[in-house]
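Bug report (template v2)

What were you trying to do?
Predict the complex of my protein with zinc ion.

What happened?
Run completed; filing so the output is reviewed.

Input:
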Amino acid sequence: MTDVKPFLLGKMTWQEAKALLKKTDIAIIPVGSTEQHGPALPLDNDAFQASKFAHAVAEKLWPKVKTIVTPLVPYGVSPHHMPFSGTITVEPETLINLVVDIGKSLAQHGVKKIIVMNSHGGNTPSLSIALRKVHDMGLWCVQLAWWQIVSDLVKETFKPPHFHADDMETSVAWALGQRVLKDKRVDEPGREPIPGFTRATMFAKAPNILPAFDMTDFTDSGTIGCARNADPERGKRVVSAAIERMAAFIEKVAKLKVK
Ligand SMILES: [Zn+2]
């Protein structure tokens, strides 16, 4: 018998789903991407992380707060990664429509609160639009990104620049059990296409202007950051804090009254 987690919608029969939906009105939708992550991390990294975080948070909350975790959305909006082999991107409209359709379906079964657990920054604008539409259907919804809920720790724990397949992302992936090709890790801090103004990093000092870009404007390897600095121990500390804070947040969401 496989060890089936009680919150995984995809592993339930419809009767089990019906029974659980009488006890909860919260669904978590993990959303990732399938895109290049430099020479040391696989293409599924964001999808893998979204799924790991969603399962860990639901597990931490269970049975005190029961949630439903939907199957993963493994594709995201990644046109800027397309010059790198293997990347699959979807149009923003595709992601918006998909998330709205998932929300609509869940609402029909009694879900009132939707937590989108997003692991890819390129999805954020499309998910905001999708969630606006889901909100207008009468649901309460939010997107949670692990790096935002622990941005204070990210800043003090990992070597900058913080951007892509860097110290932060490689350490976190490693801690979550991802395939890491240790010997292939590179440090590539990223070019500045307009020196003094355009840097690909999350916590850059002003002025920092990021135009629409292709990853190749900044990097040859696909990494922007210091992946050689990565280690799973620092990753684990940030991962546990992210799980802790997301769970604490959802515990409060569970108490919200939605009309
Ligand atoms: Zn990523």
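What did the reviewer find?
The first strand starts at residue 26 and ends at 31. The beta strands are 26-31, 68-69, 113-118, 140-145, 187-188, 225-226.
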